[in-house]
Amino acid sequence: MARASSTILAFTILTLSSTLLPTNSHQFSTKLNKREMGISAKREKLSHLHFYFHDIVSGRNPTAVRVAEAAITNSSATGFGMVVMIDDPLTAGPNMSSKIVGRAQGLYASADLSEIGLLMALNFAFLEGKFNGSTLSVLGRNSPLSAVREMPIVGGSGIFRFARGYAQARTHFSDFKTGDAVVEYNVYVLHY
Predict the structure, then answer these.
(1) CB-based contacts of 84: which residues, under 8 Å, 6+ apart?
(2) What positions belong to coiled-coil segments (predicted)?
(3) Is the whole model's pTM more than 0.85, yes or no?
């Protein structure tokens, strides 16, 4: 009899707990309230950021390091298959002694067999002013031998949540012997 009452008690506890505990609905998507996300009352802003990107591949402390290359790279005029990981400083002016406003962190890869064309996948991680702690994400093609290159801004974090826009890059300085370069960036971004 004690065994039967223990079984009934255990069954009752399991039944009650399964009805009282929240169920996992495994719902794929839900409609969100814009106000709860903090965007309904706010209007989109258009911000312009101007800075210089220092890609340093030479010397004792490079900020851009080749991490992979295809066997074909040695015979490819474009370096096709080469992958470079970066943590490049972003400065207010073209000189490295200028104030650091952020870092460009990510990678670029040679993705074109016929001309120098890079796939850029990186974040601009800002360290200055109201943008401190916020990021912008770039994903696009960069033709470094063109006078002006345009790459899409595909998102961001912090102040730049829901961001979209574009970055224009112009080479300010390039040393073909060392591979070092300073690139001027003008970034135009819509955000809340």
Answers:
(1) 57, 64, 65, 66, 67, 107, 108, 109
(2) none
(3) no
